[in-house]
Amino acid sequence: MTDPAAPALLLKVRIFVDYWNFTLACKGLKNDFRFDWSNIGPLFAEEAAKMVNKAIPHSYEAMHVYSSYSPHQGVDMKFKHWLTSVLDKQPGVVVEAVERKLKKSPPKCPKCYEAATNCASCGADMRGTEEKGVDTRIVTDMMSLAWSGGYDVAVLVSADRDFVPVAEELQKRGFKVIHAQINGAGQDLARHCWGVLDVSALMPKFEAAPKVKA
């Protein structure tokens, strides 16, 4: 006989999105693809829960989105504003916006290997920027939220094989990590995850309607 006082079993699902990895992969399949961000988290959580156990109800805990921006470019500052003032305000969405850093070394001439420190025409710094800290924040959040009981199932939206160690460690401790795969990318990571969610097949379900021209 079932104890009516016993807590109901609920599968807690949390989504972790590497923004640039995810969006560029989707646009690689459809260049003009527009994202309905309000639907992505609940949709991925529902599909992941079905993979684990269709008989157990699930709860969509949150979707964590990690991205980077360059403070030296106007278009990137507009992007940061969208991340923090629009996307982050959606229910269940948590955004981490990391500032890109200038590379320590400038590019070198492929012939004489002389470093091109500044542009010969305008004098601008020739060093590009690089993304630092995004992967580390994803790993840290996946681990800390697991230890604090924040989820049972993690959906990892990235093709980066650098996430293989955290996927293996979490699964040793009883958590399920599902790789959200786009067009077959990230096979090495997929092999180390509990399951694979085919995001390519789900794209029509989180594609925003085209803007209507006035």
| Structural class by helix and strand composition | alpha/beta
Strand percentage lies at: 15-25%
| Alpha carbon gyration radius | 20 Å
Give the helix level as a range of percent.
25-40%
Large-scale geometry: globular
Key descriptive features of the protein:
214 residues; six-stranded parallel sheet; two-stranded antiparallel sheet; 7 helices; 21% strand
Write the layout of secondary structure elements.
Blueprint: E1 11-18, H1 19-29, H2 37-52, E2 58-69, H3 74-85, E3 93-99, E4 101-102, E5 129-130, H4 134-147, E6 153-157, H5 164-172, E7 176-181, H6 187-191, E8 195-198, H7 199-202
Parallel strand pairs: 1-2, 1-6, 2-3, 6-7, 7-8
Antiparallel strand pairs: 4-5
Description:
This protein is α/β, with parallel strands linked by helices and 214 residues long. It contains 7 helices and 8 strands, in the order βααβαβββαβαβαβα. The chain has helices spanning 19-29, 37-52, 74-85, 134-147, 164-172, 187-191, 199-202, and strands spanning 11-18, 58-69, 93-99, 101-102, 129-130, 153-157, 176-181, 195-198. The chain has a 6-stranded parallel β-sheet with strand order 3-2-1-6-7-8, sandwiched between helices. It has a two-stranded antiparallel ribbon with strand order 4-5. The longest helix has 16 residues, at 37-52. It is globular and about 65 Å long. Residues 123-131 have low confidence and may be disordered.
